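Listing 4. Sequential folding, example run.
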Amino acid sequence: MINKNKEYDCIIIGGGPAGMMAAIGAVNRGKKVLVIEKNQQLGKKLLLTGDGRCNLSHLEKNNKDFVKNFGTKGDFLLSPFSIFGPRETFDFFEKERLALNIENDGRVFPKSNKSKDVLITLKKMLEGVDILYGKNVKVINVENGIIKSILLHDDSELKSKSYILCAGGKSFPSTGSDGSGFSLAKSVGHTIVNPVPGLVPIKIKQKWVKKLMGITMKDVAITFYANSKKIIRDRGSILFTHFGITGPIILNASNELGKHIAKKITIEVDLFPDKNVDDLKKEIFTLIGENKNKKIKNIFEVYFSEKLLLAILNFCEIDCNKKAREIKKDDILRMCNFVKKVELEFESLESFEISMATNGGVSLNEINSKNMRSKIIKNLYFAGEIVDLIGKTGGYNLQMCWTTGYVAGNSC
């Protein structure tokens, strides 16, 4: 049982990755620490990361390269990373005998490929920390720019010298990240940058896209426009779903698209990024000339899977069973132009229910990056997804949680 009359040195709201790291940092400094977790377990969302493997960080050359993966706001992390960056994170877990594996693409996982092993490691280090499960914070009581106490939903009151808000964002709300942390921060005067789903698939307006469900297009170039102005260009593989497109380059693009959802967003996909349209036309006409008596669907197997090829031929109104010599020149030209510029129209981002992170949160302008302390409330700190930072897929966002949690826990 928690002694509700006990005055703590630090109360941490949220028992996710950032909250646990903050608690470890504070208790190791001899602080009396309480973690308030709305679920009946810690790290519920952590267990889902990396498809259950827990992509806990990413190997980069240096911190400057690492923060570039957070876009224009990434420089905020330079100071926190100088205190506890990826290298310190690797040492932190390996010191606790959690073996790590760095994959060829730089992603870092526990060698066991089990997120539960990361959670077990963290929970072992929480000895001495009081944990209150199944409770929500209802009110933060502030006087003269200082938090005096907090009220839980059962109207019990808790007091502490300092507080760290690590309540997460809005992604995967089933894990407890329901945006309530934003309401608490706003109630004490903080600005919330409008939260939208991040690292999320996107919906496409065209109905024919559904026919491509399950098809992966490898090594394509994709360009996004907002009100006809180019905002993103990337290259990689994309996967068609029943509602639109996904894949690493799509998830990463969704972070930037979140800033432009009020605009008309259009998309162009180039299936042959290494060939210009004239060279592609010459190549295809040569291929047809060498295979005049073959069915057109058999000739192009060298380029496309059967399902994708049939969709392309159908879109270009070319009979797949016709022989190559029967196809008109204009039809081939139309197909070449189409595969060099497949035009799609953005409908929306997918929902928070499946987004991997929240794009938006407590304004960085109101947080001191050196210690993660509020510039408005003297004894309030922030860490994790609740702040207005979002990185690319690949372990960047969990690293942000470890880093900001550690800094807050060692500053409170």
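-- end of first protein; second protein begins --
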Amino acid sequence: MNYKLFGRSGLRVSELSLGTMGFGTEWKWGADKELSKKIFDAYANAGGNFLDTANRYTEGTSEKFLGDFIAADRDHFVLATKYSLRDRSGDLNFAGNHRKNMMRSVQESLKRLDTDYIDVLWVHIWDALTPTEEILRGLNDLIRRGMVHYIGISDTPAWIVSQANTMAELRGWDSFIGLQIEYSLIQRTVEAELMPMAKAFGMTVTPWAPLAGGALTGKYLKGDKGRLPDTSIRLSDRSVAITKKVVEIADRLGVTASQVAINWTRQHKNQSVIPVVGATKVAQMEDVLGCLSFELPADAMNELNEVSKIELPFPQKFFMEPGVVDVLFGGEKDKLKDSRY
């Protein structure tokens, strides 16, 4: 396992993050405590130190399990959890991005995790109601109290994140240094706004569902759609074509489809990307960890980029039109050697 700096900070995190939404069986799937510990150990023994959970995962059981697993060496691990989603049904103030829910949720997470601090606290999902300033002030108060060390934001429009980080910079507050989004060969729409925004602010991107809910392992090619509805994007003709290409390349390289899909996600030379990988079986975690032993060659990356390409919206598509490129760069764009382009 190698390590990366997390966003514009000095925090060192492993190049894969362990997703623990499946730690616990309250949602009628997932792993019990004994199996969860084995999965955790497989990840930790490979050098992994970056743990991802949330207050809602398995009704809080995920946090409880992790608290027990890291208790003997708490300071070694980089522990990330989230707030925003409900801890109680039927009560509006037990959910949302607002300060009251933030403070309550963090206090309860600390108890479940049996720790005095959270390394990275994520805003889980944007509620479109709470003022950006209220969220930032609350998060910065938690940092000042030592309850939280760094902050990130998940599943939020790019313009909101840009507004927040610009506001934080102008006011001398801590800003978001991580962005968590769905990103995979099947879900590339984030490349229009969210990925470039994260790069501009020096944020590390931690993609969830890098295997598209298991679709990119090839398991749905056999006709078993699991818990997915027939209308799922992960079962579309496009997704099937992408998955077949992943499997083809995996066979050619002598690796697994999971390893190919994850390596496509993390092989961004000019951007910090750390996939969140989960498992409900030890064999699944061992398979995922195998991606660290190789890199996809350029020809394989090109094939995957081609089969999964998306049509960018305006104005990104407009920027790429030959006539626009010509007048913007005087017909000499190919001579401009800069990673921003």
